[in-house]
Each structure stands twice: as structure tokens, then as C-alpha cells.
Amino acid sequence: MDSLDHIAVVDDDPTIRQLLAEQLERQGFRVSALPSGRALRAALAQSPVDLIVLDVMLPGEDGLAILQSLRASPHAAIPIVLLTALGDDVDRIIGLEMGADDYVPKPFTPRELVARIRSVLRRARMLPPGQAPQRAQRYARFGQWHLDIVERLLLGERGVAVPLNGAEFGLLRFLLDHPQHIVTRDQLLVHLAGRDADAFDRSIDLRVSRLRKRLGDDAKEPHYIKTVRNEGYVLAKEVHWSDEVGP
Asked: TM spans, by residue (predicted)?
């Protein structure tokens, strides 16, 4: 593990912040311990961060609101591990659908958190290089479609609007962030599942099939999401990001 990896820990409890900072620093990480989303944004403006550990139950602007704003900002590619209340499955599911890379339920051991951080950093470095996405902008245009990343709608010709569920949105967003680059099934699985995936999990193939139907793609000769045999999938269209729906 690179000793220069910079971890931002966001928790309003100073005792937890100090504990996590000490444990992570012992493991060779550089740590910024922060009490709020505002402090996090100030830190991001000053120095690059490799991963964010984010408590969901923050006063004022909570962790899910911070997550949502980060995923629609120039810092969208930073991996995020959520700290959630034990048994709060709703926050976990919403967090993963909004783009969290993993979650750790409270109470937890520092050793478990360190293991999750290392796993997420390892997965993040597996991702294809692609081009740096302009994620601060709201609309992605590809072929005849636009994706509205705020409303999670596919916008087609003649005013057609197609709502997407969390799995469909996550898959399409990932492909749009890496257009015209092959992404493997394993890369898609670890990104969408938020954890190390089962090598025999075929759920990604079903998700691709369903998304192709949403796009009106021909199953035998798709124009949008093409299968690359023995490798994975590729979004075959160019992607253009903008603040408005345009031609």
C-alpha cells in the first residue's frame, strides 16, 4: 500500500475522528480528519484526496447529501466509504445507488475499516483509464439519447423520458464515464456491487440486457452497448457533457 495515500475522514464526533486518524496513520496513510461537508470541500480545494470515509449521520448536511453533491462535482471520481448505523439497510442501499463504493456499519473495528479502504483503493485502480469525465455537468449526450444525472432519466427524441432504476443508472453512468473503452465484467461488478464480486456472478449480463432494452438496442447487433467477446462491454458512442439538453 502506498504510504502517501491520502484519506479524508468526515465525522462530527471528535473522538471517532481522532481514533480513526490514529489507526489509519499507523497503517501508513496520510489523514485529514474533518467534522463536516463544508470542511471536506475546503480540504479538497487544498489537496488531492485518494479516498473519503464519510459518516452518514452528520448534523445539518448529512452524509448522503454530501455524497450526492460530490458525485455531481469535479471530485466525482474519488472513492467513498460510508459509515452507517448498524441495521440501517435503507441508508446503505441508497448510498450504494448514489455512488458509494462501500459501507461499514457501526460499530466497527478499525481493522475492518482499513481492510475495506484497501479493497476499495485496489478496485479503483483496476478501472480503465478512459477520459476524465466532466461530471459537474448535468446531461450526457450519446447517440440519440441524453442522460439526466440529477433526475436519473433517459431523454430521447420527441420528448421521450425513460426513468431508470438504481442498477440501470449505475451501469449506464459507469459506461458513460468510460466511453469507447472496453470495461470487463469484473470491473463492472466490483463497481456496481460495492464489494469484491463473485467471479461466477452473472447479474451484470442481465443488467446489460435490460439496459439495452431501455435504449432500444438490437440484442443481436447493438449500436450502443457492444459485447467484446471474452473481454467485456464497450459503450460504442461518443459522449458529450453539457449543462443543457442540446442537439
From this structure: none
